[in-house]
What does this fold into?
Amino acid sequence: MASAKKPNILWVFIKNVASPVFIISAIVLAVKQIPGVLDFLQWAFANAGTTGQVVIVVTTGVGLTYFAVVSMNRQERVAELKAERGMLEERLRLKEAELKQVEENNIRLAEEGVKEDIWRRDVLGAPRFLEKEERSARFIALLNLKGGVGKTTLAANLGVCLALMDRPLKVLLIDLDFQATLSNMSVEAAALLVAGQSGNTSSRLLDRTLARDDFAKLVLGINRVPTGRIIIADVALERVDFQTQARFFLEPKNDVRFLFRSLLHQREIADKFDVVLFDCPPRLTTSTVNALTSSDYVVIPTKLDERSFEAIPRTLSFINNLRTIAQPKIIGVVANEVQFWRRPKLIKAHQNGMARLKELVKASDPDLYVFEAMVELSTDVAFNKEKNLVPSADKGVRKALFEPVATELRTRIGK
It folds into this structure.
């Protein structure tokens, strides 16, 4: 850590010695104006004796000296803390720059993958996409190629809201991010451990030998949500995603783009649920491609800042580049973690952000919809996530934060 800058000794003396002396003098002058008080103090000092007077003077001097020394030490400590804060802020800035570079690298790699393009290879015998009229389930992918926009939190809370409304829907959440944030906030730790040890996680959906009867073993209940179900993820998903993509790269006939569809678009499964939500990672993985080839709709969450906006055109481009194999409708962009001045008025920065978002969306796709409802930033969300509980399982949180977006989504998908 850089050495703290020493405070100016003259300034310290003025601030911590001269100023207190001045204040004391002012108090003495004020006391003079109070009848009898000054006479009493003079009498007390005169009758204290020589020893008492010496004690009073020495005590006063020691007190002032101690006060000055303590104040100087405090100033030095404040300077050290300021220097330390500067160091931490610099480290944070470097980490943010490093994270942004990683995100940009991931995006470039994904773009190259689409251009090269194993994902747009000719399709040979893809399983049937069951039309909406033939099934109960509506398949929705939540996707943004920018991390940290609250996508997983939105996926979890939309699903739980839909499952706990006055007219509840049967909802299945599928966690496709190996970090398993959605899984951890939805299921008790003991159940997660058992499912992980038995291998009953979302990576099994990439196993073409998975039978329909085995599908039920993957499905767990969501805490305090009777009609909510989830297929959890674990760290094995990253390896399985990569291995599956590698096989397809080496053996084009081993098509891995429709593994989810071959299972989820069977009537026996598609009729068990009203809504299936895929929580996609901010990467174009094998699982992400499978979610898109199975989905009716895509929802793009974003925060109202420029860094979050940067990924929206790329996300749209990725989806459009996959139109030969996937045709989900991009149902809209949802503003997440917004701050209100007084409802419905946003704080100035987010007002400007919303205007910029609509401008960007219109330039990218004039028909693309921006949800009227928004999700407010709230400490209640973080508090509940730490308890293996989706925040919307709490009625107050659900009504205040997420239900307006869930209601608008439900209207747009016709459920």
In short: The CA atoms of residues 201 and 349 lie 41 Å apart. The mean pLDDT is 85. Strands lie at 138-142, 171-175, 220-222, 225-231, 275-279, 297-302, 329-335, 340-342, 345-346.
